[in-house]
Amino acid sequence: MGSTLSRKIVRFWTRNHRRVLLVGLDAAGKTTILYHLRLHKTIPTLPTIGFNTEAIAFHGLTLDLWDVGGQDSLRPYWRHHFTGTQGIVFVIDSSDAERLELAKAELHGVLSDDQLHDACLLVVLNKRDLIQGDASDIVAQLDF
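The line above is the sequence of ADP-ribosylation factor; the predicted structure tokens follow.
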């Protein structure tokens, strides 16, 4: 397991151009994160219908960030964006306890896709400022 992860990280960081996909349920904060990374400030956003893309320079790398809408009707189309993706940022609204199981199911669905077997994964527990408690409780529920 460790050597497989190491190979994935080496492959991810040895090229100068990366394709990174931001996915998660609707209203998780994907678009806010995208534009905060791009503009270095938080701006008002609207629900994403389809996708947004931004290229970001980061320590000599170019990250092509794809923010894909998370509404129920759009989730089946996520897989069309998987080809060539080297990194996945899965965003979870940690203040939405009612939909944590759904987020977990979608995360596991993304992880089971063969097109992403070499992709690196970052899970972001967003909106932590809106709840009390320990993030480790949420992480434990994700069953990694």
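Note on the example: The chain has four helices and five strands. The beta strands are 17-23, 51-58, 61-68, 87-93, 120-126.
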